[in-house]
Specification:
Length: about 700
Amino acid sequence: MSLNAIMGTATSGMMAAQTGLRVTSDNIANVNTKGYVRKTVSQSNLLSNGMGVGVSIDAIKRATDRFLQSASLNASSDSGRASVIASTLDSAQQLFGDPSDATSFFTTLDDIFSAFSSAQDDPSSSLLRTQALTRVDDFLSESSRITSSLSKLGKDADTRISADVNRVNDLLSQIDGLNTDITRAKVAGADATGAENVQGGLIDELSKMMNVQVTPRTLGGVYVRSTEGLPLAGDGAAKISYQTSATATGYLTVQLANGSVQPTPLNITSGEIRGLLDVRNVDLVNLSDQLGEFTSRAAEEINRASNAASSVPAPTTLNGRDTGLDAQAAITGMTGKTTIALTDSGSVIQRRIDIDFDAGTMSVNGAAGTPFTTANFMTQLNAALGGQGNAGFSGGALSISGSGGLGVAIQDDATNPATKAGKGFSHYFGLNDIIRTDGYSPYETGLTPTDLNGFTSGAMTIRLTDVEGGRIRDIVVAPPIGGTMQDMLDSLNSRANGTGLYGVFTMSDKGQINFASNSTTPVTMSVVADTTERGVGGPSASQLFGIGPAERSTRGEKFYVSKTMDADPKLVPFAKLDLTQIVGGSPALAIGDGRGALALAKAGDNSTAFAIAGDAAAVNMSVNRYASDFSGSIARKAATAESRKDAADAVSSEVDSQRQSEEGVNLDEELINLTTYQQAFNASARLIQATKDMFDVLTGILG
């Protein structure tokens, strides 16, 4: 080997050692830098005609492990999702309070029944009546507060999703931009690890918000794709958008950098954004829906007892609730018998109207019954009241008043009570309700498929989403004007223009409309907009039947104590009408009668049919039992979410630890490398010096 060759070999060795020293010193300097990945020197021997002529630095690389990186990104996404869900459900649980605490929401229901039980011992006490109404108001106010707070949590999630999406777009843009810098450095043979470290940190931050797939590019940099393979960065940055709606499921879309001008639905399965979408679209809605169902049924049972009783003396006017129906539709389907009594100030019956809905007759003061139809019911009722009272039907509500100070009391027949949708006559119309509502929950209209649907205008836009929360399509359905309820169901279930390909709407025997997804393609349904109107100025289809989570999840804040009773607690119905008393005979209502109060105190023990609400199945049980199960389910959900968070954090921590062990700087190793490269540098330098000396000797000889 010539001296020139030796000199070249030694020089390449010294340069390689110098590069190694520079890389090692950089590693040591960044030992505490977060996200820094240690660098390594990749070198190979130089050959000339099969002979070694030195060493070449091929590249300066980061000591990354693709498999550990992928595991770390996935674990980070899972942790981000679990953390959001756990913190949100914990906040939701705190809204309800500790069930064992005297101030919890469920305790306020127990206080209602305790107050009515105390009032039963002294039915004439205005103080006890007032206290009972106060307890009812406390319960309803708490229901309203919690419903409103859950709604606020959902709006907060909306805000966070929008902020996270903006940050994701910024990250994708930066990641894509760094690809250019990395490629330029690699082509030029320069050190690109600085840009790669910055890019790696951005990818780590991105994975916390949404799960992505990361693959290396041939010329340096990375491709970032969604879980379904949509290109998000690498050959241009995509732009993600959050499509939000006040009433429907929110979802993500993405505008691809080199794709169609139309946004593409984007499905993600993990990350903070996925967790926020879950709590916004599912968890909080389910809680609100179940709370609304619980409050509705509690109110129903309290009102069932109050409508089976009367105050003493009876109120001069009974104003019913808005049924959402016209008079004929409201009367249609009522069966059994009921009695309307007009009583004087001494509670003596002055006029008695016995109504037999099975026979279609009205009997006044025991006389022969006069026939009526659903079409002329109101006319015949006013005729039966004979000037001593009057009845009206306006805005979907029935009202009955006595004239000249006469009171109105209603009692269903003991053996064949009037019934529609599982409620008595007074209860169905809400004539003597203690608890009133601005809505229509529990949405049991009593309509049947053969009844006219009554909708005169408008259409309903229904959104269908898949199990991952991705939008499938929006469907516009208009109820057939002049058609029956079955015609309306057929329109909703049409495979061509309705939801028939994905699920089916059905009507229960109590007139409530429900949606069930096809088992083969599970979907969820929400209502984007509803301009339908039943009659003139009547409710929309979603309001009347409780279609869609937006309507159902807000009903818990629509209940309040009867303003009439709140202003005059003496009107709280604590007595029972005695139908054995004849017209003009002894009083049919007694001041000391506490049977109505006792029924109110036991209302929480009556078995009632709870509908499907949120993720809770339909069950038959008492209100008190449902309260216990509901409170337990809230605690279980919060505990499960916290447990999943801890597990996800543990996995993420373990994977990060392994990744750090592989990619991080180890001072002991770097000091060994430092010594090795230093010795290699010194050896190459000595070789160069020896070669120089040999050159000097040769030059002297030739001198």
